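User: Fold this, then the next.

Assistant: Folding the first:
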Amino acid sequence: MAVVAEEAGYPGAGTHRFYVTMAAIFAAVAFVGFAPSYWVPMVSGSLNVAPLFHIHGAIFFAWTLFLLLQTSLVAGGRTIRHRELGMAGIALATAMVLVGLAVAVRSMNDGVALGVGHARAFSLVSLSGIAFFAVAFGYAVANVTRPEVHKRAMMLASVSLLQPAVGRWFALFVAPPGAIGPPPVPASVAPGLVSDLLLIALVVHDWRTRGRVHRVYVLGGIVLVALQLLRVPLSATPAWLAMADWIAGLAR
């Protein structure tokens, strides 16, 4: 991630510190969200999952730490180092997309094997989430020379990753006892809207500091919310279920 910035202490330094704070909140949400279902069981030795899921957890959480590092470098005026690490960010994001796709397909097939009737439908939530991150990240990379666009697209991409973390807490308190596999698709809407509160914080900051909201947040936010809502009807269509069967077949 490459962002051009002035020396520390310039008029925009407060904005950069805000982005550091938001990146720290993202990392905290990711850690706390997965604590009951992943971190705590792993530490206690009671977690029994395939290596693929450990790789997934490691690289996705690494993204939040990488974002925190990159925003901190910019806030500290170390933009050269920030730019030098840009290729590492591209490599990490690419790995996230590939591993995320593999986990989504594996989870769908596992759910089908367990007899979870909505496993194929829920795959739309996972796969569309990965697609949104990939597009937002790609847009950020394409605008490395436009820092106002670049940094907001990176934050938008990162916000989109936090729905699963929020969803784990919903599952902890709302899911019926003995539930296995992914939740029904409608259950993904509330966690998505809760995670969107982080985007609202970014929007409010824009409004207070710029007098208007940047188009990246406006258009990206509209697409993100629409995606979260439209998954419910689209996931049950014959077209998507046929697509899910085709995708599942690729892993067999």
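Now the next one, as you asked:
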Amino acid sequence: MISKAVRIHWRNHKILDLLLLKKKKFKKPNKANGRNQELKSFEKCIKELAPKWSDKSPEPLAQLDYENELDLKNKAFKNFLSSNGVSTEIKAILASPKPRHYRTTSKRRVFCTREGIGLGFSEQVKAGEVLKSDLEPTEHQEIYEQLHKLLSESSFNPLARSLNWLIIRGTYERRFLILNFFKMNSGLVRKIKQLSEKLQREKVVEGAMTYFDPSRSEYYLEAERPQKGIQTKHLFGPKLLGLKVNEVLMRYSPIGFSQINESMIPHMIEIAEDLLAPEESDSLLDLYCGYGLFSHTIAKQCKKVTGFELSKDAINSAREISKRLKTEHKMKFYSEKIDSRFVRDKLGEAVDELILLDPPRKGCEPGVISELAKRKPKRVLHIFCGTDVVPRELKQWKEDGYKPKTIQAIDMFPGTPNLETMVLLER
């Protein structure tokens, strides 16, 4: 029989173990670790100042007068940086030439019910509904209305039930359709051919392709691509999209990344060139280069340009552009995952180096900034697509010996609580 003293001793140990487990489980984030530190979000700063707000809307600021929206964003951006420890003086946000109807990439998710289909964003919509957007060109809405009418035909019902997204890409003058499927079989292939013929005959869009994404990802162009089976299939029209900036024509894959606000791109290029100030003696390291938007425009006079990007489609486009522009002797592009090991082990010696860094919304992989700082570049232009990562990554640059000289935000995404931020860093 266990004595009372032993039972009390055992019980106290169990309580201590539970307390230690609870403490470990709910351990507060390490404030010294920039990735774990809880920062005040840019969206929260806007919400605190906005006269009205809808969490359900993908464009919560679109109903404001643009002058008021820009004033709101300027105040919120200053509050956001200062509340998160960034004290560098910032320039006023550069306004978008097209504050509404500017998006050259748009999307609608296909929702199917017994009553019919609806085209919306992330939230379920009723049959017959085709949601509108104040941020897209009116031509996009007209195309979605036509697609809704076609997909509502009984013969195309199996097709509609296999679609994930309808995506429109292109320019303000030309539009290309991507049909994003989560299911594919021989019967659907025949239906796709019939739909393709109708789209051509009725001149709904200039070209079209299919994209297979069985994961039904929220990231409407690509999630984890399947290793086997159909990925993309060209249906008709041009196989490449085109963008002309500063008399430089760049053609790229319809599934490659490109800025959605075409009206802002020339201004973005101008700012990048002014801040980075490339010279003939400089070498440019263009990381997350895409199809080479910056390399082919601001770095033409550099003695050497090396671009890296994970997407093979984008790299193939960058190489083809360089070949057509006859700059392939000094511009090289490679498909690589950009992490700390890549920067440390695969990049050669740096001499008179400029770095242009344009990572995705989540920011750089851990250790990338520290490894880049060890190369001692003359200047770094870090472009942030995700505003919330700005304080964290500027802190990392500061710890590695670089400080921001210029912070210039541009309103790449009017009507939404997002900015593109261009930061020039020097030792």
